[in-house]
Design goal:
Layout: E1 3-7, H1 11-23, E2 26-30, E3 42-45, E4 48-51, H2 60-69, E5 79-81, E6 84-89, E7 95-99, H3 102-112, H4 116-140, H5 146-154, H6 158-166, H7 170-177, H8 181-188, H9 207-215, E8 218-220, H10 224-237, E9 241-243, E10 250-253, E11 256-259, E12 262-264, E13 266-269, E14 287-295, E15 304-307, H11 312-320, E16 330-333, E17 348-356, H12 367-385, E18 395-400, H13 402-406, E19 439-441, H14 452-469
Parallel strand pairs: 1-2, 1-13, 2-9, 6-15, 13-19
Antiparallel strand pairs: 3-4, 5-8, 6-7, 10-11, 11-12, 14-17, 14-18, 15-16, 16-17
The chain binds flavin-adenine dinucleotide (FAD).
Flavin-adenine dinucleotide is lined by residues 7-13, 30-33, 38-40, 53-56, 247-248, 270-271, 288, 290, 353, 405, 408-409, 415, 443-444, 450-452, 455.
């Protein structure tokens, strides 16, 4: 039995710890705050249940495979697949219903522009090819070398591999498929799933659109906190010792490591890797502001709505310049549309998220003012763009700012850490291996990237690399 320290109790750390313990190691997980889950979690206010970070779940097979690897399939929370994945509303009053059913989605697209129905089908065909060319080999195993990745990618055929390398930006791909601005904006939004800009990120991010369509957009019944609780129970059932309120660092000592005055044979770090890998000067992905509102009536909104800003390039230009744009795109999540356990009868909770830049050093205090500005901006846009909310008094019951994210270890509040811009951006993510043999990274800041299912994969990869290092079979 080897001793492994896991530093950080986010989704990646919990997954790595649980898998390592299940493999037979003696695992201690140190979490700096008083709660597990990191950016993922749920709060309850006066009977209303809100996710505070992630709300969109996809890749259910990856989630299930993780619980199987933890020996805890019985603990996996229920996922509900949403037939209407997202309702997009545009500044000019037009709308697009992105149904999982491609025929229905294409009909909705054709109402925006006669060519857009066919464009949508062609776009999703391309997105699938990109997923096969680059996505599958990228997600299949820990990324260690470009040669290893190419060898995996070549199994799908050289032509497919070349497709991946021919691509330029996501925005260029959107322009290839759509004449009108509406569906271009729909495609471009997928870059924000990685905290990136569609005008700089590679078109390979179109694979996220394929993943949502092919594997579904899901809601975790009871909220994301139910997933965190299930992972924590699985880890503890496998024997993981959890130490809360312990902000720790590891130190090399002989052939092993010392963490919090205790000796370990290996360490998995779930904190963002940029600082420990001496890359603090790297550009960062976007941060986010979330406002949580209570409505004294059951709203007739769908589960997910996007209220697009009129000028998307201006929004990303402002983000890149470190400013708040004049008009912000809003992600609205209304979970009571799917799950009665999220709100008592006759009431609704509404989560509204906007992307904002990571803050600069010393700007933390200014966020008290920024939060009020953003709340007012969100309220004004809801009134202007969502007729269902006319006359409904919304009270702000909770919020999350970039400073809250920084308090959970996010560098300057950046949600995904390293910014994967450029053709080879995703290959330059901070490594899963630390400089010292026996140190591995898990979480959204390393391979394969952010988002709950990918972070679970990261935790499993880190556990496998650690076990292999310790001389076991990974
Ligand atoms: C507003 C918002 C919306 C999002 N929406 C979605 C979505 O819809 N779908 C989706 O899939 N993903 C979404 N995400 C992203 C998703 O939440 C993250 O990618 C994922 O939860 C990150 O997990 P992680 O393992 O990297 O750990 P983190 O959540 O980053 O947690 C790391 C943990 O390590 C702890 N820690 C750090 N340093 C130390 C130390 N020195 N000692 C001890 N503990 C330490 C921290 O306190 C924290 O608990 C969203 C995120 C945010 C913030």
């Amino acid at each position: 039995m080897k001793r492994v320290a896991v530093i950080g109790g986010g989704i990646g750390g919990l997954t790595a710890a649980g898998v390592l313990a299940r493999t037979g190691h003696q695992v201690t997980l140190f979490e700096a705050t008083g709660v597990l889950g990191g950016k993922a979690g749920t709060v309850s206010v006066d009977g209303l249940v809100f996710d505070t970070g992630p709300t969109v779940m996809t890749m259910p097979d990856t989630v299930r495979a993780t619980f199987v690897e933890l020996g805890a399939e019985d603990l996996m929370p229920q996922l509900v697949r949403l037939p209407l994945q997202t309702h997009y509303r545009y500044a000019d009053g037009r709308e697009f219903h992105c149904w999982e059913d491609l025929d229905r989605a294409a009909e909705s697209a054709a109402r925006l522009h006669p060519d857009d129905g066919g464009g949508l089908r062609a776009f999703f065909a391309d997105a699938e090819q990109v997923y096969r060319a680059a996505g599958q080999p990228y997600l299949e195993a820990p990324y260690q070398t470009m040669m290893g990745f190419m060898a995996r990618a070549a199994r799908n055929g050289l032509g497919t591999l070349l497709t991946g390398f021919k691509l330029s930006t996501l925005d260029a791909l959107a322009k290839q498929h759509f004449r009108g601005p509406h569906l271009r904006q729909f495609v471009n939004r997928f870059a924000t799933y990685a905290g990136a800009s569609p005008y700089e990120a590679n078109a390979a991010f179109a694979m996220i659109a394929h993943i949502e369509r092919a594997f579904g957009v899901h809601h975790v019944v009871g909220g994301l906190g139910a997933l965190v609780d299930a992972l924590a129970t699985a880890a503890q059932r496998n024997g993981v010792e959890v130490v809360l309120g312990a902000k720790v660092q590891h130190e090399k000592r002989g052939r092993g490591f010392v963490v919090s005055a205790r000796e370990f044979d290996a360490v998995v770090v779930n904190a963002d890797p940029l600082e420990l890998q001496h890359r603090s000067a790297d550009p960062l992905t976007m941060s986010g502001y979330v406002a949580m509102f209570a409505a004294p009536t059951r709203l007739s909104l769908p589960h997910h709505t996007i209220l697009f800003a009129a000028d998307y390039p201006a929004e990303f230009a402002a983000l890149a310049a470190g400013r708040l744009a004049d008009e912000l795109t809003i992600h609205l999540c209304h979970p009571a549309a799917t799950d009665a356990s999220m709100a008592p009868a006759g009431r609704s909770g509404l989560y509204a998220m906007v992307n904002v830049p990571p803050f600069r050093a010393g700007e933390e205090a200014a966020w008290q003012t920024h939060a009020r500005t953003l709340e007012a901006h969100v309220r004004a846009r809801l009134l202007a763009m969502v007729p269902e909310l006319a006359g409904v008094p919304l009270s702000l019951v909770a919020e999350r700012t970039p400073v809250d994210l920084a308090n959970k270890g996010a560098p300057r509040g950046s949600i995904y850490g390293y910014l994967p811009h450029g053709k080879f951006g995703p290959f330059r993510r901070p490594s899963m291996r630390g400089a010292d043999p026996g140190v591995f990274f898990a979480g959204g800041g390393t391979h394969p990237g952010g988002g709950v299912p990918l972070v679970m994969l990261s935790g499993r990869f880190a556990a496998g690399l650690t076990t292999a290092h310790l001389g076991g079979r990974s």
